[in-house]
Amino acid sequence: MDLTPEDELLVLNERLLESIDTNDYETYTELCDVNLSAFEPEAMGQLVEGLPFHAFYLMREGSGTAKQSTICSPRVRMLGDDAAVVTFVRLVQTQSPATGDAVSSCEETRVWHKVNGQWKHVHFHRSFAGSVELG
Predict the structure, then answer these.
(1) What does the radius of gyration of the chain's CA atoms come to, in whole angstroms?
(2) Please, which pLDDT band fits residue 134 given cuts at 50, 70 and 90?
(3) 132 φψ region: left (φ > 0), alpha (ψ -120 to 50), beta (else)
(4) For the segment 2-13, what is each residue's pLDDT rounded down to a tens digit?
(5) How far is the C-alpha of 135 from the C-alpha of 4, rounded, in Å?
(6) Could you give phi then psi for residue 26, rounded to 5 degrees?
(7) Alpha-carbon torsion, ordered 25, 28, 34, 36, to 10 deg
(8) Who contacts 71 (Cβ-Cβ below 8 Å, separation ≥6)?
(9) Domain 5-134 has CATH 3.10.450.50
(10) Domain limits of the chain?
């Protein structure tokens, strides 16, 4: 069964977040354009471009922290046949021997562009919404 472009993008977006959660830089680079641009809390209000900024976080040795993302209320807006915006709230559950269990929430917008028949993640904006430590 063929997926609609919207369903394909949701699958790719989920795969992207899984690669982030598991520090799988190889998969991350397969899904992202080499000129990926981003506004995110770690960039302190600056636009970062390229993959080296993200490699710093994704190529670290394991910290003993388990991490899992859940996509809430996803929306896909097609911008023609070769571009799309995916918006959602991302819940990130973490479990660490040092700090225990916690959940954080981010509002995310991710832009995808189809190049040579393959979707590439080209830009994102992520805003921190809140967190809670669980006892």
Answers:
(1) 15
(2) confident
(3) beta
(4) 999 999 999 999
(5) 42
(6) -60, -50
(7) -120
(8) 10, 13, 14, 17, 88, 89, 90
(9) yes
(10) 5-134
